[in-house]
Amino acid sequence: MNFDGSLMNYHASTGFVIRDSEGHVLIASSNNIGENSINVAEYVALRDGLAVALDRGWDQIVIEGDSKLVIDSI
After folding, report:
1. How confident is the model at residue 74 (pLDDT cuts 50, 70, 90)?
2. Total domains, the chain
């Protein structure tokens, strides 16, 4: 799963993509989350992606993101 958060003029967005082992996209999502920090956006993107994976019963997930803070915290 790849996840990311973005911030423009204090308006944050999130997104994630989950692929199978061959790289085919299984699900992708993006959301606007209003006024937030980039760190909140990164955490929300990760949380949302993990929630979808768990709901679908996918329990072996490789997580990739560009936020060292978020990656180190998990």
Report:
1. confident
2. 1
